[in-house]
Design brief:
heterodimer; A: ten-stranded mixed beta sheet; seven-stranded antiparallel beta sheet; 26 strands; B: mainly beta; 22-stranded antiparallel beta barrel
Chain lengths: ~375, ~800
Amino acid sequence: MNSIMRDIGKVLSQSIVFWSFMVVFIGGLGGCIDPVEPEFQFEEGLIFIDGFASTVPGASFVTVNTSDLLVGTYRLLFVEDAIVEFENIDTSTSVALLEKEGQYLPPDDFAVKPGETWRLNVSLPDGRNYSSAMETVVSSVPIGDLEAVYNPELEFREIQGGRFIPGHELLVSFDDPEGQENNYYYFYRTFEDLDICETCVDGYFRRGTCVGLNEPGPPYYNYVCDGDCWRIRYPESVSIFRDRFSDGVSVSKLPIANLPLHTNENMVVEVLQYSINGNAYEYFEVLKDLVDNSSGINAPPPAALVGNMFNVEDGDEFVLGRFTAAASSVARIFINRRAITEEVLEPRSALIFEEMFDPVPPPITTIAPCEESRFRTGIRPEGWIEQ
Amino acid sequence: MYKKRFFLIAAFFLAAILGRSQEYTLSLEVLAQATGLPLDNVQIAIRPCNCGGVTDASGNFSIHLPKNTYTVMLSFLGFKDEVRTIALNGNIAERIGLYEEEEQLSEVVVRAKRILENIETPQMGALQLTSQELKKIPAAVGEFDVLRGMTLLAGVNNAGEVSNGISVRGGSLDQNLVLFDYAPVFNPAHLFGLFSVFTPDAISTVDLYRANIPARYGGRSTSVLDIKVRNPYTDGFKLSGGVGIVSSRLSVETPIIKNKLFLNAGIRAGFTDFLLPIFSERLENTKANFHDGTLKLLYLPTEKDQVSFTGFYSKDFYQLDLIAQVENINASSNQYDFRTLNGTLNWIHAFDDRSNLRNIFVVSDYAPKILFPETANDNSIEFDSRINYVSFISEFSKEIDDKFQYYGGVQANRYTIEPGSLDPGSGNSIVPVSLESETSYEISSYASINWSVTEDLTFSAGLRFNHFVFVGPYTQGFFDETTGDLLDTRIFEKGAGVKTYNGLDPRLGLNYKLGQNLSLKASYARLNQYLQNIFNTTTPLPTSRWKTADPNIEPQQSDSYGLGIYKNIEGSDIELGLEGYYRTSSNNLTYKPGADFFLEEFIERDVVQAEGEAYGLELSFRKPKGKFNGWFNYTWSRSFLQSFNENLADRVNNNQRFPSDFDRPHVFNGTVNFEGDKYNTWSLNFTLQSGRPFTVPNSVFPLEEIDVPIFLERNNSRLRPFHRLDFSWKIKYGKNPNRRWVGDWTFTVYNVYGRRNPLNRYYEQRQAGVDADIFLDSPLGSYELSVINSPLFALTYNFVFD
């Protein structure tokens, strides 16, 4: 028995060595994500039709694109001169969409109404005709509450060797209508206070554009916005919800987006809660799998993003994209981020302004306009609070 | 007188001198017969000189003795005593091999053991690994692993470093019947598929049937992995265990009533997940605990009867950020909690030395859960599911003579599947959901003969008939073929027959000896599979749903043909084999794009049954004995699937044939053990294989501000080749042969050169400035996920006390 006790004693003393050993060496099991050169097998001539008919005037659009390989370089080309129309099945009337800046747009006052049934028809200049399945607009469900909760460890990202990044988690609450299938698709925009409207690297700003320096000078110049300006950001992931397990209940604090701390400027978040039909939900579910769920150890196999569009003459042609007619409700929240101390994802470099004797032509310029675009606006967003 | 006395004294000394000059040297070299390794400290007793000694580190011993006839007795702990009579009439050098000692068992126990061995000897076509062989294989973080060990054999593979099972000859993970003492194990893996669940110290042998599958087995379309629990035929107490990085274990083997009742029990537990955040920030939210236990009781009521009970329990709990969350449940995380509880009651009655009746009653119960802690409060929503399997087998076997044996039996199985329920707990954010449980029965009868037609020709033939019935309660859905919409339902009452399938599985095997050491084997097997695991991923989650055949999902069926030539090289114990196979299969499960089976009532809407084809050539080299032992194998193989679907959006690979997830054209495995002396064993294991097929995009489409990869094909590219070198060094210590506590240390390096073998490659949105030098002008970023990213060092202490 003594010999057993001796052996046990020996094991215990050796266990100190053992645990030290373990602490040093088990690290390899942590999993690892490495960037690799992306591989593609591009196909030419694929057709992409993405259409949206909204209950909000000015929010409806259709894009028609085709894939192309030019000297081995893949590109997506906007198909011009197509005949595009929204067809109201109930009234047998059509609304023509006109080409504008890479989109086909209906008249500014166009809006669909809940209960209406619509179809998208597209005729390409080469004679191919595409139609969608019929879409009935589902009534929207109002957002009860919108919250943004700050989390210094919001999510793990593969930046700087992999780390948790800070940011806000966006949560919605609403009452799901009872006795009917409800499917939700979330879209949001963030309006972030912007004070530097232009940065010219190795150059200076004149007449609305950056001009290269002819002689050595500062690495860049910054230009302050000439008035109020907001930077607009869009979702980086797909957010959907189906009331399969929550029919008729109050859905509380449903996470719909992570808003990383790109800067610590204040911002307004505008959330649109679309009510979509079951077929649209399944389409966005595939989209979510492709965009958000492809990285885990239980990633589903990739699937073709085929929606409800089809070639009228050739049922075997893959038509990518979808026509969706939907109603939405909207909610906004103002987030004050000035007091956050965590490191931002887009730290601002030291400001450099044009000064006398710099190698730039006069007059000294320090401002730039806040040009309206999808990513910038000078119009104060609803919900903005001046601090 | 003086002269006479002087002469006598002189004669005496002369005789003594002459006698001395007649001494000879007896040299002995003592080796272990099985391994050929020298044994030191072997005790040697010689009569009539009553002299002796011990062997040195090289196993040598020598002594000078007068000419005579001696009895030399050699004894060494763990080996049988050896007694030799040596007539020493010159210098003699002898090499003596000692045989490892089998336990000194009583006659009752020896007889019981022999009966069981007769019954359980694997049939032709089985690949076998013993627990000793498995223990030599270097294992990840020192965890002895049955499934990972099997992947080193020809034709056996898995989904990668994490895999909830094995793939045999290109089949999917659920096409293998995994039996642990006759009880099916529905989830054979701990820790997301890193280790298998089988309690290490309880395992006796592992047999893999993949070609000539015996008729007594049925129910899966590719292979049978038959893991046997060690029978506690013992006359003494034995305690063994180990302390490892991930888990620690303890087992005991002892008679409870002498010659009547015996016990073998083992447990293993791993609770070291609290250390994970130290190693990687990514693992901060990871939880991973597991334990398992195996108990076997053996009762010998009469000389001709033995009754055994095997119980097996396995439990896991984990939470991992690398697993995508379940949709539509508002929760802060998904926590997986699953347990297996199996029991096997086995009664063997021997009528005589050549005929037996065996009755087996099996219950397998697998209950996976997911816990969803709610975001808004402390409540947890709970998803529960369950599969319960009850089986009764009665089999008679008889050995007519050495040339003809047969067996026949019946098997009745009941499958009860609870596909899932959702319990809101104390919260009110969801409504309770409960899917109807599904019940089905499988009644089989089978018979098989094994006939040595001539000295050179052995023939085995078996036939298994299966009658499968799916019964109510059941709600059958009828769907629009184009849209998939539910058109109508038909309700079946409890117990009402819903769907019946009958299947006839012929099994044939032929072994023809072409000379002393060369043989040719051919086989054919048809298998029907009535139970499958539904998962639309490479490897299933523990909660992936089980589904029996029903009116909409037809049984899977395969036809396998095999032909092989095998040669034993005389004198060197080397076994060579070349085996080819061809398998067609029908009704394999593939899934429509975007399929989601979580609590789905009509899963058949998302299931597409596919035709499969697999073929390959396996070359193997095996040297089971000697200082250097081990095996090499190379496999060339292909595995394809093809499904057909009218609806364009639901097609997989546009209805064209595509490589299955388990298609690996080239696989090389090598395992070498060097048993230099009895204290040290070094093992190396190397595997090299083609990467897993994966899918690369055919286009990229911007949707709002998100670049979406567009996939029109399936598995149109391949991950980088997979290769890995593992090393282990087992050190036994303690030179005292009489000590009862024997310990050893095993030092393992898994993935010696730190290869990052990709488990998956995926595409993501690019982030400004991140990895721009790698992604260049690509619209999307691309990343490889590897589970093990550096060498894994492990130190395990093992002990045996008896």
